[in-house]
Amino acid sequence: MNTKNTINKNYLSALSRIFTPSVMDSLALYGQSDYLSEVYSNSGLKNDFDSSLTLNSFFDYVYSLLNEYYRNEYVYKNAIANKILLGRHSLRTSKMLTEFRVGKNKADVVILNGDSTVYEIKSAYDSFNRLKDQINSYFQVFDYINVITTSSQAEKVKALVPEKTGILVLTEKNTISTIRKAKSNKAHIKPSILFDSLRKSEYTKIIKAHYGYIPDVPNTKIHKICKKMYCEIPLEALHDLTINTLKQREHSPYINQFIEKTPASLSAYALSISGQKKKMQNLENLLNNKVHSILYS
User: Fold this and answer.
1) Is there a contact between 161 and 182 (Cβ–Cβ < 8 Å)?
2) What is the number of other CB atoms lying within 10 angstroms of the CB of residue 183?
3) Helix or strand or coil: residue 145?
4) Which DSSP letter does residue 10 get?
5) Taking the mean position of all CA atoms in its chain, how far away is CA 125?
6) How far, in Å, CA of 105 to CA of 144, rounded?
7) Taking Cα atoms as reference points, which of 124, 35, 118 lies closest to residue 73?
8) CB 120 within 8 Å of CB 133
9) DSSP code of residue 44
10) Tens digit of each residue's pLDDT (9 = 90 or more) over 212-245
11) What's the sign of the alpha-carbon dihedral 188, 189, 191, 193?
12) How far apart are CA 74 and CA 266, in angstroms?
């Protein structure tokens, strides 16, 4: 298949949105996506891809196009999922979170094992305008802080971020290369900021685990009292309790089975719905269907 002649390059941005939650969730919940069908017809994919092949193959094929011609944020997230989380760690002991709220910012990817490690993505299509503010906010919450970018932008990143920040590059060979290793920031984490990234169910669980009880106060006061108690926990214990609690966020044991049956192109999306068993089961049932049975033209 000669993709250079048949795929309309003006549709690369549109193709990249195939892996967004809105499109993937539509497939997982309803078995079809109007957006996906439209892009399939208009981008040249309909002429370029054999519709008698499976949806599994389709996603891998589209992802290969993005990896070669349009390395957007999803390509980076997926590389982190495959090369770092699944390649170096284990789903039994580690957790990957995406779009994790930190103050006014959202961390692109966070991996939790014994440590908390954040990866801020700066692809060739991303702005650097907010990078300093983003990194400064991460230094209040995470142990290891990294920026992952292109080889041509690594020096620009180095000039903008503190020396303790790790700098990684997604190479042309689709490997992740370390330009500068991140240094531990655990001793400087600010509990009051980290607390505000937690859900009520999470911070009350931490309070009970450390103190043995949850304060019996009106709902209007529970946040303030728990925050005070949280900030009084010794930092080492606080870090470990928080990591162990966050590892349970949106978790289902079914994710292990789903990852085994999911194409590598969908790893990042699969991990983002790791607590939603019905979505995972529905999508798993679709992946071996023929493309022509799902996408209309």
Assistant:
1) no
2) 13
3) strand
4) G
5) 17
6) 17
7) 124
8) no
9) S
10) 999 999 999 999 999 999 999 999 999 999 999 9
11) positive
12) 10
Q: How far is CA 46 from CA 41, 140, 241, in A?
A: 5, 48, 50
User: Please, which residues bridge with residue 148 across strands?
Assistant: 121, 168
Q: Indicate left, alpha or beta for 238 from its phi (over 0: left) and psi (-120 to 50: alpha).
A: alpha
Query: Residue 285 in contact with residue 28, Cβ under 8 Å?
Result: no
How many whole angstroms separate alpha carbon 37 and alpha carbon 196? 40
Please give the structure tokens belonging to residue 74. 């999803």
> Across-strand partners of 101?
106
Q: What is the dihedral of CA 154, 159, 162, 164, to 10 degrees?
A: 40
- The tokens describing 144, both together, are 């290891």
Residue 144 has a CB neighbour count (10 Å cut-off) of: 20
- Assign residue 198 a region: left if phi > 0, alpha if psi is -120 to 50, beta otherwise? beta
Structure tokens at 66: 């993005």
**Token output for 126:** 């991303």
pLDDT in tens, 69-122: 999 999 999 999 999 999 988 888 999 999 999 999 999 999 999 899 999 999
CA 284 – CA 289 distance, rounded (Å): 10
- DSSP per residue, 55-116: HHHHHHHHHHHHHHH---HHHHHHHIIIIIIHHHS-TTT-EEEEEEEETTEEEEEEEESSSE
